[in-house]
Amino acid sequence: MTRTRRLLLCTAGATAALVAAVAGAHVTLAATRPAAAAAVAPPNIVFVLTDDLSWNLIKYLPQVQKLQTQGMTFNDYVVTDSLCCPSRSSIFSGRFPHDTGVFTNGGNDGGFDYFHGHGEEAHTFATALQAKGYRTAMMGKYLNGYEPANTEGGTLPYVPPGWSEWDVAGNGYPEFNYDLNQNHTVVHYGSQPQDYLTDVLAGKGSTFIANSAAAKKPFLLEVATFAPHAPYTPAPRDAGDFPGLTAPRGPAFNTLPTNAPPWLAGRTPLTAAEKQNIDTSFRKRAQAVQAVDKLIGTLRAALTNAGVAGNTYVVFSSDNGYHMGEYRLNPGKMTAFDTDIRVPLVVAGPGIAAGRSSTSAVANIDLAPTFQQLGGAPIASTVDGHSLLPLLHGGSGANWRTANLVEHHGPDTTAGDPDMPAPNSGNPPSYEAIRTHAYTYVEYVDGSKEYYDHVNDPNELHNIVGTLTPARLAQLHTALTNLENCHSGTACWSAGHV
Fold first, then answer.
1. Which pLDDT tens digit goes with each residue over 428-450?
2. What is the rounded CA–CA span in Å between residue 488 and residue 482?
């Protein structure tokens, strides 16, 4: 049976199992047992974080579809910025970019140098869980600017606080010919098939699971793949998959929104060469995530073999989304469109009813407090996010926040940044945005604005900000300002109810 045929069958099965759950604005689960307190031991956490993975790749990930049928899918999960370091800093800390100070991938307001230099590494879910006796492992991609051999003033290659196991690369995007800092020792990997980075991470993750279970210690494992980030390098075994596959041609493909903001307005239609490049890139992305899917299966098999699958939460997500031809943009990210800020979040584990979904306004700032509550670790008042356990364990979502904040500093001109936008791929100026289930509202630094009605315009093709009354605009501006200026869990929770 061909891979394409297998995926079609898997997609059909997953769709049938999920169809009843996708409807509705919020979760409506029957009561299930509360939180992890019912577990005989602290639960384990396996977190697979991908790079630039968009919703339209889920159909090529049968292991993720299986996870959906066994757990909970958050359909309105958004990131605080559609860019690597701001998003990842929010994931590690549970705080907005305006509190971490990480707005870009480098320079004086972003990247590893800022996160490290301002002491942010001392306040992550890893440090919190390690203090509670967890074995913690970080594998794959950390933050832009991290170099495996750098000592950061010490005598050995640097490993941040909070991590019991550290297997992290710097430039792992090509998937071959990279260095890993393996617990203070730098090891070079070459160009042989067995050196393919995603596969190496799968093996190391499985070993960590087995060793942690044998030591009878609770553990948190984060495996952060470089795939499917450009250059979209698949494993050699997958390089011939999906012949003829083209990028989706949804309503937004090669179409400008009406009343587009100045940075986007006036773009000419995509050329034939640009469309061909988009199709080739999408096919390579689908090929590249096959190794990610295999990694998920490998890690879950390791959990089963170690006898800890029943007491482990498995979490799958991405640091940001990705547009490919939508709004006449070449492949990229950084915009406030759903293609870029709304990404998959799937969680399965103890007490989570199977095959459920939610459209509650959850965000990447919610992951750290979720992990910390699962592990019984305190959550500092400075954490902006909120634990997802009430939703995961049966809550209706009726009292959950209704709005999320997105913050972006641009345009990106950082030399050497692997996320530096290619020409015509979208490089907007700085903006702040509110996203709710019903709408997205954006304010740019140049004074331009956008408002998209998700109910009547789910593809965000009609900017109707000009039709809003002055009173409504003032209301939106106040709500956005309140979120921009919140600096604690209590304040941000309140500001998120709009």
1. 999 999 999 999 999 999 999 99
2. 12
DSSP state for residue 426 in the 8-state scheme: -
**How far apart are alpha carbons 55 and 77 in whole angstroms?**
11
Please state whether beta strands 345-348 and 312-318 pair in parallel, antiparallel, or not at all (unpaired): antiparallel
Global confidence as pTM? 0.92
Torsion angle of alpha carbons 200, 203, 204, 210, nearest 10°? 180
Q: Which helix (H) or strand (E) holds 489?
A: helix 489-495
Instruction: Give the separation between CA 201 and CA 222, rounded to whole angstroms.
Output: 10
User: What would the mean pLDDT of 126-155 be, rounded to a whole number?
Assistant: 98
**SS in 3 state form for 439-475?**
EEEEEECCCCEEEEECCCCCCCCECCHHHCCHHHHHH
Active site residues: 84
- Output the domain CATH number for residue 289: 3.40.720.10
Number of domains, the chain:
1
For residues 249 and 298, the answer to whether their CB atoms sit within 8 Å is no
CA–centroid distance for 172 within its chain: 18
Q: Report whether pLDDT(88) > 80.
A: yes
420 vs 143, higher pLDDT: 143
| End-to-end CA separation in angstroms for the chain | 51
Q: What are the φ and ψ backbone dihedral angles of 224, each rounded to 5 degrees?
A: -110, 100
Contact 85, 364 (CB under 8 A): no
Residue 292 makes CB contacts below 8 A (sequence gap 6+) with 48, 50, 53, 61, 198, 225, 227, 228
**Helix, strand, or coil here: 382?**
coil
In a domain, 304, yes or no: yes
CA distance 114 to 412: 16
Q: Does residue 337 sit within a domain?
A: yes
Long-range contacts of 444-453 (CB under 8 A, 24+ apart): 444/261, 444/263, 446/262, 448/261, 448/262, 449/261, 449/473, 450/257, 450/261, 450/336, 451/476, 452/257
- The answer to the question of residue 28 being in a domain is yes
Q: Is residue 212 part of a domain?
A: yes
Measured between alpha carbons, how far is 439 from 257 in angstroms, rounded to an integer?
15
The residue segments making up the domain with residue 21 are: 3-395
Q: How many CB atoms lie within 10 A of CB 454?
A: 16
Average pLDDT value for residue range 100-106: 96
Tell me what pLDDT residue 40 has.
64
Q: How far apart are alpha carbons 89 and 31 in whole angstroms? A: 34
Tell me the C-alpha distance between 374 and 132, whole Å: 11
